[in-house]
Amino acid sequence: MNTRKLLALIALTVAFFPVLNWYWLRLGNGSGEPFGLLALALAVGFALQDRQPAQLRFAEISLLIYAIGLFFLPPLLRSIPALATIAFLSGMHRQAGQFALLLLSLPVQASLDFFLGYPFRLITAEGSRLLVNLLGYPVERLGVQLSLKGVIVSVDPPCSGLQMLWATALLTAILAALFRLSYFRTFKLSLIALTLCLLANILRAAFLFFPESGMITLPGFLHEGMGLLFFALASLVLCQMARSFQKATPSLPLPKKQNPTRLLTLACGVSLITLLPARTHSPNPPSNFESLSTYHGRAVEEVSLSPREESFAENFPGQLKIYRVGHDTLIIRRITKASRMLHPSYHCLKAEGFIISDSQIESDDQGQPFLRYRATRNDEAFLVSEKIRDLQNTKQWTEVSAWYWHALFHPNSGPWEAETLMTPIQL
After folding, report:
1. Which of 8, 44, 57, 188 has the most crowded CB, counting CB atoms within 10 A?
2. CB–CB of 177/98 below 8 Å?
3. Reported pTM
4. Is 411 exposed, middle or buried (0-12, 13-18, 19+ CB in 10 A)?
5. Crossing angle between the packed helical segments 162-178 and 109-134, to the nearest 10 degrees
């Protein structure tokens, strides 16, 4: 490696340090993000097996976009031009499958859960309703729940199909890389993959409606087994489609001799930007958030926020308060606008090393739904209840994704309040 390439590598490492640091932190937050390392390893493996020449001009353009995005883009979007720069420099951009694997290495699973969790559950519930109706059962859909003669079956968050979606996307990228598909053919294969994924999840949910409603009795292992079965069938169809798209790929002409001096200069400039002091966020205007004196007739004691919680609350579009209710912990987050900063509580608990299980939707004394699950870590165990409501008590949600889309399209219906109650239980 000559001196100029070594300097460019050092400059790019410094320039991309904010993204690398964010990526490292996301790997350890407990939300399943390390699976992206599998996509990264596959991308590197395919690139080493099929080396392609770099394209410095496009790398310079994507690096410039990355530099501009440092001032206003969130880390996830900022990382895309960074990955594009790497793809152009390594030649991975010449193979659509390799570039897709590189993008899938991003820690996106928590974001998919936040933005697509509710829409995918809605699609799954409606598709299942249609299928079950075709079998002669007059099922009605109530949001993301299916109702038949007073029996309610919920399409809960684990049944949204997002894990199947990510696995299908990974398989699509692998097939595109193996068969050396063009970008256009990879795009067509991706649309087919999305359709197959939705159909497989709908079939799974429709099948499981019968045992979940008590109409038939099946072994418990079939709950996961049916998902794997329908995913395997969809994968077989996808493999056959990818094979039919395969054709001889013409060899691309080698680029003309490229001068890396301009890229080195640009990389040094961007690396200097990352060394500047981070911009400060203007604090959110305080809202009228009176402290609780009682909670369901029980005395409460407000708890001071930790330094980490205070740092989070500074940029939170609302206010955060924590209380002790006997031996329970009550977390109240009041928010004034649709925001990604209202994290699901189980994401935060996963980041602390807790294992989430037994998730289900229940109803309170007023018949309003709320989410309940168990969180365990070593010898600690909590029964966690969570709900989000508007302050007029006209609507209530069990998950952040459903609330977010409502708040986005009905901004005047706020502010809203997220309530999380953690009750210690014996293992």
Report:
1. 8
2. yes
3. 0.79
4. exposed
5. 100
- What's CA 126's distance to the chain center, in Å? 22
What is the DSSP track for 159-198? GSSHHHHHHHHHHHHHHHHHTT--HHHHHHHHHHHHHHHH
pLDDT tens, position by position, 344-387? 888 888 877 788 887 888 877 777 788 888 889 888 899 999 99
- Residue 53 vs residues 138, 148, 211, 258, 307: alpha-carbon distances, Å: 60, 60, 55, 11, 49
Q: Which of 120, 36, 30 has its CA nearest to residue 76?
A: 36
Per the CB < 8 A criterion, the answer to whether 265 and 393 are in contact is no
As a whole number, mean pLDDT of residues 274-280 equals: 57
Burial of 137 by CB count in 10 Å (0-12 exposed, 13-18 middle, 19+ buried)? middle
The β-bridge relationship of strands 380-390 and 369-377 is antiparallel
Could you tell me which residues are beta bridge partners of residue 319? Answer: 334
CA distance to 8, 9, 40, 83, 142, per residue, from 4 (Å): 6, 9, 26, 21, 63
Residue 322's beta-bridge partner residues? 303, 331
10 Å CB burial of residue 383 (0-12, 13-18, 19+) is middle
Residues 6+ apart with CB under 8 A from 145: 125, 152, 153, 154, 155, 361
How far is 176 from 172, CA to CA, in rounded Å? 6
Cα Rg of the chain (Å, integer): 25
